[in-house]
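ParB-like N-terminal domain-containing protein
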Amino acid sequence: MSRKLPNHAFAALDAARRESGADRAFSLDRRRLIEVEVARVRPNPHQPRTVFRDEDIDALAASIARVGLQEPILIRDVPGERDVWELVAGERRLRAHERLGRSHIEAILTDGDAREIALVENLQRVDLSPFELAAAIGALAQDNDYSHEDLAVICGRHRSEITRLIGLSRLPASLREDYDARGGDISVSVLYLLAETPDDALRQVLWDKAKAGATLRHLRAIRDAARAEGPEAEGPPPAAPATRAITRALRGFDRTLAQARPEDLTAAQREHLQRLHERISALLAAARIS
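Tokens:
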């Protein structure tokens, strides 16, 4: 069950809105402010944040216990179910209430795009990791056919930054896991440099140097020197430009396929993959004949 909040609850909400700019992002209506049972709020399946540190939840719970919840969570109705809601934004606040053993939480009912709101809401508060942000932006682009310009407006970032963030998805899963295990102590500028380095061996050298404390300037110098040296004289002859392009494309495609799930493919993607399959089969057949 839900119940409307008393009028004095709106004063804190209005102050929080003015501070965070939430009105501009979510077009909130104070008549939608309600109080709901914590147990009846389902997690957001599109939550861009994947890491929730216990110490952060403990600190937030202590703050809420002392001064109360300063800004409600965002929820939306679950179609076909009465008095059940899906969390749109505010999972840390919801977890803090659970940790405090509280049965109800203040919430704002919204009908906006859950994935988009969750991303913007997280950006306004605690920074997402670069990889969480890249994954969330990539999902938004795929689900809504957004251009990089559209995403820049939604996220309040420059278009070039959006392009570079999406490029982080090219980095191997092992590197991303290593980054998370270290607590995100490598700058995003270094991650951009790694994503723009197609050579796997060179990228690993740069990553090891970065973990050892090398500066971005030093890493760039290492990369530029490696590029200037080119292939060793005793090594195999350099591949033709088209062959090199195919090699780079296959590496990226292989990494993407390793993360893909059949149930996530759209009809357009399945058709595109089928066309690629036919073209690859024809290319391989021609190569066998020659």
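Strands lie at 2-4, 33-37, 41-42, 73-77, 85-89, 104-109.
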